[in-house]
Specification:
By secondary structure, the chain is mainly beta. The protein is built from 2 helices and 12 strands, in the order βββββββαββββαβ. The strands form 3 sheets. It has a 7-stranded antiparallel beta sheet with strand order 5-6-7-11-10-9-8. It is globular and about 45 Å long. It starts with 10 loop residues before the first strand and ends with a strand.
C-alpha cells in the first residue's frame, strides 16, 4: 500500500544494509543497527523524471477512469479522543514519528504504513535533488498523484512550517480501494506532507474518510516527525 512516486528521480537511493523480516518488528521501530538510507547523485542517463515547464498548468484528471464516489452523509472514521500515540523510529529511514498505537503496521525498508479500517497513515522516503516547493509540487507531484490515485481531485497546495523544517502540504481527495468483501469504495481526504533534508525527501500521507474530523490528529502526527540521520 505504500506509494512510490518517482517524480524526483534525479537521485538514486541505496540502503547500507538489506533488511530481512521487516514485518512483525516491535512497534517502537525497525531493526536496530540498520544503516540509514543514503542518497547519491545520479548520472544524467539515470534521470527519468520529466518536469513540466515552469508555470505550466498540471493536469489533475485522474488516469484511472473512475468517477468520484459520493461522500458519506455520516462519514465514518473519526479517531477517538482517547486514541494513544507512540513514537515509531526508523533506523534505515533516519526519522521518528508518532503513530496510533495498536494499528496494523507494514514496513518496507525506510517506508512504513499504519492502517486501521478506513484510515491509512504512511511515511515514504525517497531521494531528491532539492527541497520541495509549492511550484514543484504543482508541476511534478500533483500530475504524478493524478495518474495513480483513483478519481483524484486536488484541493490545495500550501507551504507549511513544521518543527522538522519547511514543508509542502498537498491536500486532495481520491477513491479508496474496493472493500475485499463488499467491493464498496469510499471517498477519502488525503493530506501529504513533504519534507527535505540532505538529499532525502519524506512524504507523510494521512488518508481518512472524507468529511471526518481528524484535524488535530493530522497536526499532531505531522509535527511529531523528526529527522534522526
Amino acid at each position: 500500500m505504500i506509494h512510490r512516486l518517482k517524480s524526483r528521480a534525479a537521485h538514486t537511493c541505496a540502503l547500507g544494509l538489506v533488511l530481512a523480516g521487516t514485518l512483525g518488528v516491535a512497534f517502537g521501530g525497525n531493526s536496530a543497527g540498520a544503516a540509514p538510507i543514503t542518497c547519491t547523485s545520479a548520472t544524467p542517463a539515470e534521470t527519468t523524471a520529466t518536469v513540466p515547464p515552469t508555470g505550466a498548468t498540471p493536469s489533475t484528471e485522474a488516469i484511472p477512469t473512475q468517477a468520484p464516489v459520493g461522500q458519506e452523509q455520516n462519514p465514518p472514521g473519526d479517531i477517538p479522543d482517547n486514541q494513544a500515540f507512540v513514537p515509531y523510529a526508523s533506523a534505515d529511514g533516519g526519522y521518528t514519528i508518532s503513530m496510533p498505537e495498536g494499528w496494523a503496521r507494514q514496513e518496507d525498508g525506510p517506508n512504513v504504513t499504519f492502517s486501521d479500517k478506513l484510515h491509512v497513515f504512511s511515511v515514504e522516503i525517497t531521494c531528491a535533488d532539492a527541497p520541495p516547493t509549492v511550484e514543484s509540487a504543482k508541476n511534478v507531484d500533483v500530475p504524478a498523484l493524478a495518474q495513480k490515485e483513483p478519481a483524484f481531485a486536488l484541493v490545495d497546495v500550501t507551504a507549511v512550517d513544521l518543527p522538522a523544517g519547511p514543508a509542502v502540504l498537498i491536500k486532495y481527495q481520491a477513491n479508496s480501494a474496493p472493500d475485499e468483501v463488499t467491493g464498496k469504495q469510499i471517498r477519502l481526504d488525503v493530506e501529504r506532507y513533504e519534507l527535505f533534508k540532505d538529499g532525502k525527501l519524506a512524504a507523510i500521507s494521512l488518508r481518512v474518510p472524507a468529511g471526518s474530523d481528524n484535524v488535530d490528529v493530522s497536526n499532531m502526527i505531522s509535527r511529531s516527525f523528526q529527522w534522526t540521520a
